[in-house]
Design brief:
Helix 3 packs across helix 5 and helix 4 runs antiparallel to helix 5. The chain has a single domain, classed as PAS domain (Beta-Lactamase, 2-Layer Sandwich). It is globular, with a radius of gyration of 16 Å. 28% of the residues lie in helices and 29% in strands. It starts with 23 loop residues before the first strand and ends with a strand. The longest helix is centred in the last third of the chain and has 19 residues. It has 179 residues and is an alpha+beta fold.
Length: 179
Protein backbone atom coordinates (compact mmCIF):
# COMPACT_ATOMS: atom_id res chain seq x y z
CA UNK A 1 0.00 0.00 0.00
CA UNK A 2 1.27 3.45 -0.76
CA UNK A 3 2.56 5.88 1.79
CA UNK A 4 -0.49 8.16 1.44
CA UNK A 5 -3.18 5.52 1.59
CA UNK A 6 -1.99 4.36 4.97
CA UNK A 7 -3.09 7.82 6.18
CA UNK A 8 -6.07 8.39 3.86
CA UNK A 9 -9.53 6.94 4.32
CA UNK A 10 -10.83 5.75 0.95
CA UNK A 11 -14.35 7.06 0.52
CA UNK A 12 -14.96 6.70 -3.22
CA UNK A 13 -18.07 8.78 -2.59
CA UNK A 14 -17.26 11.25 -5.29
CA UNK A 15 -15.53 10.94 -8.62
CA UNK A 16 -13.67 14.03 -9.74
CA UNK A 17 -13.70 14.47 -13.51
CA UNK A 18 -10.47 15.58 -15.07
CA UNK A 19 -11.08 18.44 -17.49
CA UNK A 20 -8.08 17.62 -19.67
CA UNK A 21 -5.98 20.69 -18.85
CA UNK A 22 -2.26 19.85 -18.65
CA UNK A 23 -1.47 17.72 -15.61
CA UNK A 24 2.25 16.99 -15.34
CA UNK A 25 4.60 15.39 -12.83
CA UNK A 26 8.26 14.51 -12.84
CA UNK A 27 10.05 11.99 -10.64
CA UNK A 28 13.57 10.84 -10.01
CA UNK A 29 14.64 7.33 -11.00
CA UNK A 30 13.22 5.96 -7.75
CA UNK A 31 9.75 7.38 -8.41
CA UNK A 32 9.99 10.25 -5.90
CA UNK A 33 8.20 13.39 -7.05
CA UNK A 34 10.48 16.25 -8.12
CA UNK A 35 7.93 18.46 -9.91
CA UNK A 36 4.16 18.87 -9.98
CA UNK A 37 2.18 21.46 -11.86
CA UNK A 38 -0.79 23.33 -10.40
CA UNK A 39 -3.38 21.13 -12.14
CA UNK A 40 -1.87 18.03 -10.51
CA UNK A 41 -2.12 19.55 -7.03
CA UNK A 42 -5.70 20.61 -7.78
CA UNK A 43 -6.73 17.11 -8.90
CA UNK A 44 -4.86 15.22 -6.17
CA UNK A 45 -5.96 17.52 -3.35
CA UNK A 46 -2.39 17.66 -2.01
CA UNK A 47 -0.30 20.82 -1.68
CA UNK A 48 2.93 20.92 -3.67
CA UNK A 49 4.93 20.76 -0.42
CA UNK A 50 3.14 17.54 0.55
CA UNK A 51 4.06 15.91 -2.77
CA UNK A 52 7.66 16.91 -3.45
CA UNK A 53 10.10 14.21 -2.36
CA UNK A 54 7.33 11.68 -1.75
CA UNK A 55 6.80 8.51 -3.79
CA UNK A 56 4.43 9.02 -6.72
CA UNK A 57 2.45 6.10 -5.31
CA UNK A 58 1.09 8.60 -2.77
CA UNK A 59 -1.96 8.85 -5.06
CA UNK A 60 -2.28 5.15 -5.98
CA UNK A 61 -5.83 3.93 -5.54
CA UNK A 62 -6.18 0.43 -4.01
CA UNK A 63 -8.43 -0.63 -6.92
CA UNK A 64 -5.38 -0.48 -9.21
CA UNK A 65 -3.79 -3.86 -9.93
CA UNK A 66 -0.12 -4.03 -8.92
CA UNK A 67 0.46 -5.61 -12.34
CA UNK A 68 -0.15 -2.22 -14.03
CA UNK A 69 2.71 -0.62 -12.15
CA UNK A 70 4.94 -3.66 -12.49
CA UNK A 71 4.52 -3.46 -16.26
CA UNK A 72 5.03 0.30 -16.21
CA UNK A 73 8.27 0.10 -14.20
CA UNK A 74 9.61 -2.74 -16.34
CA UNK A 75 8.93 -0.68 -19.46
CA UNK A 76 10.47 2.50 -18.04
CA UNK A 77 13.58 0.71 -16.75
CA UNK A 78 14.05 -0.57 -20.29
CA UNK A 79 14.14 3.08 -21.43
CA UNK A 80 10.76 2.93 -23.17
CA UNK A 81 7.56 4.94 -22.72
CA UNK A 82 4.39 3.53 -21.17
CA UNK A 83 0.77 4.64 -21.40
CA UNK A 84 -2.24 3.31 -19.54
CA UNK A 85 -5.46 3.99 -17.67
CA UNK A 86 -4.98 4.84 -13.99
CA UNK A 87 -7.43 5.40 -11.15
CA UNK A 88 -5.88 7.82 -8.66
CA UNK A 89 -6.86 8.49 -5.06
CA UNK A 90 -7.20 12.06 -3.90
CA UNK A 91 -6.07 13.17 -0.45
CA UNK A 92 -9.74 13.35 0.63
CA UNK A 93 -10.27 9.67 -0.29
CA UNK A 94 -12.19 10.33 -3.49
CA UNK A 95 -10.86 9.45 -6.93
CA UNK A 96 -10.32 10.36 -10.58
CA UNK A 97 -9.36 8.51 -13.76
CA UNK A 98 -6.67 9.53 -16.24
CA UNK A 99 -4.76 8.12 -19.15
CA UNK A 100 -1.14 8.66 -18.21
CA UNK A 101 1.80 8.77 -20.60
CA UNK A 102 5.11 8.21 -18.78
CA UNK A 103 8.45 8.59 -20.50
CA UNK A 104 12.07 8.55 -19.38
CA UNK A 105 13.63 11.97 -18.80
CA UNK A 106 17.07 12.20 -20.39
CA UNK A 107 19.94 14.56 -19.67
CA UNK A 108 22.99 14.19 -21.95
CA UNK A 109 21.70 10.75 -23.01
CA UNK A 110 21.50 9.62 -19.37
CA UNK A 111 18.16 8.67 -17.84
CA UNK A 112 17.67 10.96 -14.82
CA UNK A 113 13.98 10.46 -14.07
CA UNK A 114 10.53 10.24 -15.58
CA UNK A 115 7.94 12.69 -16.90
CA UNK A 116 4.22 11.89 -16.73
CA UNK A 117 1.54 13.73 -18.69
CA UNK A 118 -2.14 12.92 -18.34
CA UNK A 119 -4.99 12.86 -20.79
CA UNK A 120 -8.71 12.90 -20.10
CA UNK A 121 -9.97 9.32 -20.50
CA UNK A 122 -12.84 8.45 -22.77
CA UNK A 123 -15.77 7.67 -20.47
CA UNK A 124 -17.10 4.68 -22.48
CA UNK A 125 -13.79 2.89 -21.92
CA UNK A 126 -13.72 3.39 -18.13
CA UNK A 127 -16.49 0.85 -17.49
CA UNK A 128 -14.57 -1.82 -19.40
CA UNK A 129 -11.31 -0.85 -17.69
CA UNK A 130 -12.94 -1.15 -14.25
CA UNK A 131 -14.08 -4.70 -15.10
CA UNK A 132 -10.70 -5.67 -16.44
CA UNK A 133 -8.82 -4.24 -13.45
CA UNK A 134 -11.20 -5.97 -11.03
CA UNK A 135 -10.41 -9.28 -12.77
CA UNK A 136 -6.70 -8.53 -12.59
CA UNK A 137 -6.96 -7.72 -8.85
CA UNK A 138 -8.79 -11.03 -8.32
CA UNK A 139 -6.04 -12.90 -10.16
CA UNK A 140 -3.43 -11.17 -7.98
CA UNK A 141 -5.32 -12.17 -4.84
CA UNK A 142 -5.34 -15.76 -6.12
CA UNK A 143 -1.58 -15.58 -6.68
CA UNK A 144 -1.74 -15.51 -10.49
CA UNK A 145 0.51 -12.50 -11.02
CA UNK A 146 1.47 -13.52 -14.55
CA UNK A 147 -2.20 -13.79 -15.53
CA UNK A 148 -2.91 -10.37 -14.03
CA UNK A 149 0.06 -8.85 -15.84
CA UNK A 150 -1.05 -10.34 -19.16
CA UNK A 151 -4.58 -9.04 -18.61
CA UNK A 152 -3.54 -5.45 -17.83
CA UNK A 153 -0.92 -5.54 -20.57
CA UNK A 154 -3.77 -5.54 -23.05
CA UNK A 155 -4.77 -2.05 -21.87
CA UNK A 156 -1.31 -0.47 -21.97
CA UNK A 157 0.74 0.93 -24.81
CA UNK A 158 4.44 0.16 -24.72
CA UNK A 159 6.81 2.44 -26.64
CA UNK A 160 4.02 5.02 -26.69
CA UNK A 161 5.40 8.07 -28.46
CA UNK A 162 2.39 10.31 -27.89
CA UNK A 163 -1.31 10.18 -27.28
CA UNK A 164 -3.10 8.69 -30.28
CA UNK A 165 -6.05 10.37 -31.94
CA UNK A 166 -8.18 7.36 -30.97
CA UNK A 167 -7.78 5.10 -27.96
CA UNK A 168 -7.81 1.35 -28.31
CA UNK A 169 -8.53 -0.87 -25.37
CA UNK A 170 -8.01 -4.52 -26.16
CA UNK A 171 -9.25 -7.59 -24.40
CA UNK A 172 -7.34 -10.46 -25.91
CA UNK A 173 -8.91 -11.07 -29.30
CA UNK A 174 -11.64 -8.49 -28.71
CA UNK A 175 -11.07 -4.78 -29.19
CA UNK A 176 -13.07 -1.77 -28.13
CA UNK A 177 -12.45 1.32 -30.22
CA UNK A 178 -13.18 4.51 -28.34
CA UNK A 179 -13.36 7.79 -30.29
Amino acid sequence: MSEALSQTTITDQKEFFYDGLPMITETDLGGRITFVNRKFTEMSGYAREELLGRPHSIIRHPDMPAACFSLMWQTLHDGRSWQGYVKNCRKDGNFYWVIVHVTPKLLSDQMVGYIAVRKKPELPAIGRIKELYAKAKQLEEEGDYLGAKALVGDTARIDAQSFPQEEYVTYGANALKVM
